[in-house]
Amino acid sequence: xxxxxxxxxxxxxxxxxxxxxxxxxxxxxxxxxxxxxxxxxxxxxxxxxxxxxxxxxxxxxxxxxxxxxxxxxxxxxxxxxxxxxxxxxxxxxxxxxxxxxxxxxxxxxxxxxxxxxxxxxxxxxxxxxxxxxxxxxxxxxxxxxxxxxxxxxxxxxxxxxxxxxxxxxxxxxxxxxxxxxxxxxxxxxxxxxxxxxxxxxxxxxxxxxxxxxxxxxxxxxxxxxxxxxxxxxxxxxxxxxxxxxxxxxxxxxxxxxxxxxxxxxxxxxxxxxxxxxxxxxxxxxxxxxxxxxxxxxxxxxxxxxxxxxxxxxxxxxxxxxxxxxxxxxxxxxxxxxxxxxxxxxxxxxxxxxxxxxxxxxxxxxxxxxxxxxxxxxxxxxxxxxxxxxxxxxxxxxxxxxxxxxxxxxxxxxxxxx
Amino acid sequence: xxxxxxxxxxxxxxxxxxxxxxxxxxxxxxxxxxxxxxxxxxxxxxxxxxxxxxxxxxxxxxxxxxxxxxxxxxxxxxxxxxxxxxxxxxxxxxxxxxxxxxxxxxxxxxxxxxxxxxxxxxxxxxxxxxxxxxxxxxxxxxxxxxxxxxxxxxxxxxxxxxxxxxxxxxxxxx
Lengths: 417, 174
What we know:
Helices cover about 10% and strands about 45% of the residues of chain A.
């Protein structure tokens, strides 16, 4: 219940209110869909939140235009009301507490009433109920042969400060209605998924004399120490097969980017610069990396071959581009638009190709950081920080659809999904 | 009879009725694969006691064991001339302490982002270490760690407060 009180669902359209981002799309191809909640579906705050999660899933997918008002009806009725005939589809659902938590869904063609998709879902753990909604909408999306939105089924993992020198690492669904603290009790930072199935993740622990990188299996608790380094140690990317990682290390007090073979522990230094090199990300089939460096006197995005030493700048605008993520031939980066402590803290996000061309602004105001591509590269997750705490935003790069979810008063330190 | 039939058809049309089979879901219950597995919860470390950064003898200090914190300008990691006297005092303190290792902790204000801020804190710690080495202290004496923006001594949105967080603290490594 506490989670529901803390949770504030914020649906907003960043593009209309906050962004200059503009990717034109011919017409509105979204499917109009009326959502009917069964009269005997689970009510109360959980029922209301479940409905809002279904709506969020549909909106952020970019594929659906859901009905604005909640409609209630008989789940088993054979009649489609006349006032819903203007929709393309009718989605009926019923959430019950039988055998833990069960969800029944049925999708109909609104014009002729034919059933397109019917399925039921069950889970033991009621706390994970948001995943029932995500799975159902993801399946309906697939049944209509729309481009996969599998990313809504994934866990988000993030660290947040709880007090000075203390933090916690939390597992969540993408709407943050489900949250579970995985690690608490010290200063543990920079969580990064270690495999595509999200069974383990890397994080940096400060519990010893030196920062130590661990990999933790979230299902059996097995914890492996991967590396230790003086100064700092952060896992910033994981290869597709999970066998290698990019890490920022400073064995001699100098932050540079290394590639670590996870099995053998062998370390290969990739960058070698007397200033700051951080945040390595694999690009170009893992033959190169993009990373953040201050080698031109300010933080900017650079590119280098894994096996070479030639470094080229990727972005030619802004004087403080200090975070980036990469997917295929695209990068998304955060740029600080203000240049001193007294001039506030405005960060905006920009999309570009990995050679720095075709730059598009994604946000226009606020403190927008930590951009992360979805597994299919079609959506960008980001953190919008303010003095009141953090919000998590999602931008669908193709449809302009976006959503913001509030995380409450604690500041996010790092995030991955 | 005919009248009743027409009336029934009219009502059905007006209602927009469209008969179809109700979904038969019995025997179709499937597990939402992958979400029943319960994840672990664990503790890692008890945290490090945080410095208070109180003002002593007219200057702020969040170091311990007789050391004085070194402060930095916005975004910078070079030791500035007004900090040289504190570097000299810290070097003297190390000589007095004897064999213990010294932990140098780099810190930042909130105007940065995850990895970059930790790297900036580390560069500050390294700069202080090099300044102390230039005073004749052995390199082996030091352990460096960056705490990024995780250890603020002040949380007010003012420049005075931000400047107190852009610092390097020194203490005996325990």
